[in-house]
Amino acid sequence: MPELPSTLGTLKSSKFGDQQMHQRTVKSELRENLICKLQRGDDLFPGVVGYEDTVVPQIVNAILSRHNFILLGLRGQAKTRIIRMLTALLDERLPYVAGCEIRDNPFHPICRRCRDLIAVKGDQTPIAWLGREERYVEKLATPDVTIADMIGDIDPIKAARGGHELSSELTVHYGLLPRANRGIFAINELPDLAGKIQVGLFNIMQEGDVQIKGYPVRLPLDIMLVFTANPEDYTARGKIITPLKDRIGSEIRTHYPLTVDQGLAITKQESWTERPSPIRQEVPSYIREVVEQLAFLAREDKRVDKRSGVSQRLPISVLENVISNAERRALKAGEDIAVPRVLDIYAALPSITGKLELEYEGELKGGDNIARELIRMAVGKVYTNYFEGVNVSQIVQWFELGGSLKLEDAAGSSAMVKQLSKIQGLMEKTGALGLGASEPDAVRTSAAEFILEGLYAHRRISRNEEVGFTAGERKRETPEGGEGRRPPRRQFN
């Protein structure tokens, strides 16, 4: 890579001295680089799944229109990840006046210090360079953020050392927004900013003017502003002031995965499943589907707060916990392969309950009970996908004839296979999950348990903590062929 110019004179004579280049704004730079990526067919947001036909086209339109924009969505919808990836649309290197707090354009300086320096040194003015990542500034909005944090404040020490009046620009200690000059400034959870800070923001966006401790300072910043917010807060009844809302060019709604397949792809990509371990891990597809279906069902459940949402972090954390529980069992049993079972999903309750914000009805029921119900429903839906139309009456009959089976969490796979093989027709039905007879015991155990859990989810058999799986509803024997009465179902405690 050729050496970059280090003075204003050498900068002028280089390719960076092109008149059109040094007059280009950040928004124009993002637009031009985006156009190049679109022409090449590049992936604009690699790793972001499910937004290709919804959110991404709207972001592209906002950048092409040179808009400041806001991403509105519930937690866990990749809002922050997307805005951080905008740096890929910036130039690889950008020159600025060395030592400048606000990274001034050497050809169009806006701060007093740089204007004075260039007037004295001319072409010998030292030049430094910014990388892409250095041109991104992010702030999480909280109610205690002040104007001094965002815009700046008078620094009496600067005034005393330099012998300046307090009203001089040279006494200003710049805040985050001016320090993001010639870059991207992102604010997460915008409505959490106090009203007066929001006023300062829209004044900068519209006029480039700001008052610091009563002194007017003209700061025509070159900046791209992007925000994130929860839709509940971003309303006239919420905590956003209308003049600021009016000055944001595009309002873009994010969403959770629209299909289970999209959710599976995200969870597989983000979860820590490929981990170093003395044993091999193998996660069956039906276990992944149950974990993902769990999140979809939670988002639809009326007992879960819709305004808070159910983050995509839920299936990610659950899958990691499920694998860890299977790994723990295999290590204790001395096995060389860990295969998660449905039992391990119940063991992952701590990674579910903390991510569910419950309504009043859900609070009465209890987080653990809600989570268990959701797991059972998820197993039922996935079981139907694999076993719809499959005859499992032989398995059900085994329990109706008095059979019962209690599965132990810590039991080894070979011992489990021996127990499960006693149930008529059970091991043969694992073929519907794509298993052959030569599969390891851990794989066969997981598949057989999934079938039993599916039958329990569909109320074909029962289960409780004391005796495990037993018969479900069945007619009681009555004399003389009298009509039997069904006993109450046994619930999972």
Task: List the topology elements.
Layout: H1 8-12, H2 19-22, H3 26-40, H4 55-64, E1 69-72, H5 79-84, E2 93-97, H6 112-121, E3 127-131, E4 136-140, H7 147-150, E5 152-154, H8 156-162, E6 172-174, H9 176-179, E7 183-188, H10 195-206, E8 209-212, E9 215-218, E10 223-229, H11 242-247, E11 250-253, H12 260-270, E12 280-281, H13 285-300, H14 313-333, E13 337-338, H15 342-347, H16 350-353, H17 360-365, H18 367-387, H19 393-400, H20 413-420, H21 426-429, H22 441-457, E14 461-464, E15 468-471
Parallel strand pairs: 1-10, 1-11, 4-7, 7-10, 12-13
Antiparallel strand pairs: 2-3, 5-6, 8-9, 14-15
Percent range for helical residues? 40-55%
Strand adjacency order, main sheet: 4-7-10-1-11
Q: Which CATH top level class of the largest domain fits?
A: Alpha Beta
Q: What profile does the largest beta sheet have? A: 5 strands, parallel
Low-confidence regions: 474-493
Tally of domains: 2
The assigned CATH architecture of the largest domain is 3-Layer(aba) Sandwich
Q: Give the averaged pLDDT, no decimals.
A: 86
CATH superfamily of the largest domain: P-loop containing nucleotide triphosphate hydrolases
Radius of gyration: 31 Å
Strand % is: 5-15%
Shape: elongated
The first-to-last residue Cα distance is 67 Å
